[in-house]
Amino acid sequence: MTLDDFKFIxxxxxxGFSNVFLVRSAFNGKFYAMKxxxxxxxxxxxxxxxxxxxxxxxxxxxxxFMTKLxxxxxxxxxxxxxIECKNIY
Length: 89
Fold this sequence. Notes:
By secondary structure, this protein is α+β, with helices and mostly antiparallel strands. It has a single domain (about 5-85), classed as Phosphorylase Kinase, domain 1 (2-Layer Sandwich). It contains two helices and five strands.
């Protein structure tokens, strides 16, 4: 899976070391929220545990109050979390 497998629709938000985008899958046409986490910042500031915890929690916790982690992968520059996006359009 790569970033090219998604069409970027718009930026939903940004923070200190990540940006979240509304994307659409080229495979199934579904909308997702994609969080791009700056890999260099995380590694340089020794905060890998933050990403590991977020990935674990999103992938393991099953609750109506949390979104589901659909995919995760990494690029040369980013850790990527692709999360279900409900009630879009």
